[in-house]
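Chain X:
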Amino acid sequence: MKSATMLLCAAAALMIAGCDDDDDDDGFDAGVADAGDFDADGLEDAGPTPDAGDAGQLADAAAGIRVPVAFCCAETTRAAGGMEGTPFELNCPIGNVVVGWTGYADTNRVWGLAIRCGGLNVTQLGDGTYEVVTGWATQSALAGGMTGNAVTSNCGDRQFARGMYGKADDELIYSLGFLCGQGSIGPDENVLVQGTSNSDFFGGSAGTGFTLQCPEDSVMTGLTGNANDELGLVRLVAVCAKASLTDDP
């Protein structure tokens, strides 16, 4: 039977691209769908797989195109608090903005502070509008001491800081929260922080209320001040910068 089958195959060679021998493992010939034309689920592929560039274009069409942002023109607000303690600077990494703070406080004052930062991400959507959000948060070093309870105060979803508020006198910072807002893109393609909501407020009730706020066309990228283990937070100044869209990657 095998010999007869082989003779029939040979006779039909001009009509058929090849013939499988029952005892061989050659696979199918080019005239029949190759196993490689099927995906892992056994379903026939619709066509060739797009390359990385095609995939990126498809993703851009569906989710928008990421737009680079450049920071410049750093400036500071006025100060709140006193002059004692050791000077410190807490700055977000380049391309990041302040999204909250963590530290230590009790019912009398704020003892220690570290800022939380998130990457500023701008996406141009298919309708030409922009979406401004922040990425995962990182945390700076701690300024001040670790007396009291551990606390965390973050801006709301899709918000970032535009300044600080609290209570202080000419000696100490007694309480602290952050001023937060939603990002948007202005007519000059700069990032605006619009609307104001307050993050959670921690500390005591002594002192006089203060607000340290960046301009509307600026974002908060860090803070400076004075602090030590014995006094806690003594002085605060918000650090602001302008962020705008750029063609540079």
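Chain Y:
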Amino acid sequence: MTLFRNMFCDQNVAFFRVKFIWRYITALFVLLMSMSAARAVTVTGADIRVDYIGTAGPTDLTYRVFVTIYTQCDASGTIGLKPNIEIDVSSAKYGINMKLPLDRMQLTGQDTLSPLCPSSTIKSSCFDINNVNAWPGYIRNTYTGVISLPVQTDDWVFYYWHPGNGRWTTSVNLCDYWVMHVAAVCEFNNLERYDNSSPRFNANPFTYIKSGMPQQIYNGATDPDLDSIVVTPYYSLGCLSFNGANCPTCGIYSEVTYAAGLDVNNPIPTNPPNTYHVDPATGTASFTTMGNTNFAFGYKLSEYDRRTGKLMGFIVRDIALPIRAYMGGDFRMDSLPSNVNGAVVIPSGTNNLVVCPGTPVTFDMGVQPGAVGN
């Protein structure tokens, strides 16, 4: 009986230890996850593009893929960004599904983005974290990798989904954990031309938008093959399928619907007559907003073969921008230019510039807001 009792006690002790260790591991896992979520990088947008880099002619289907993740300079810094990521590459017609690893490129000074003038860049949050609300700055984080596609087809899809970005906007239907995600997509056709490259957005889209003032968001749409391009407003990406149900109804590329009163052509409240408009040739968005919070903006850049007119693919840019109240007062501009290059001021002390035809001219004009905070 004593032997049996000792064996029974030993088993209970062993069970208790296992149970304690399991609870400890579970608690530690939850703690680490919460710390990771609390310090996750704030992603404010994403881009993707595909470049043909083959050298051996029509049989060489080699391409370089770039994914750009825009992050805000805040307390999280770039915590949560990995040295490498994976994207999905697929063709429904051929039943192909592949993973492509991309490596993060070394950051340079050109990757620090600020809407401020060069002389005032040091005021942005990338240089002074205390200005994250007044003058937010951004970092362009680029990942790249090379892929040899096995076939030519008109339905290649390059897709990246970034979990846990922590952005927040009022212009889309937030549900469960959608707020923590962002995505990038490129549909690509190399059937018509093996050496096709995707279109791309070259301009820095980040700007300080003031409520009640005419604004523009620049995208700089271009195509390296000189194909015809068209930019249209599009949905924000990053919708999440949660617990087996789409929340809200997710699009095929995780498009998320807009909040009540807004839609893909009107993603932000505006003041007539300057309602939201996207230039189809450049992607520049123009509007005067009544908003005063964070809003999401999506842009779809499609390319069409310059000879046949056939669709060659598209990319989507998805960004989130803060809207701030305008403090009032007019802008004051210098009456005379400074640092004039390529021209002569005649007579001196005036704003008359004399220049030869075809000569590039540059000069500075200082502008000051009429109220503190603008």
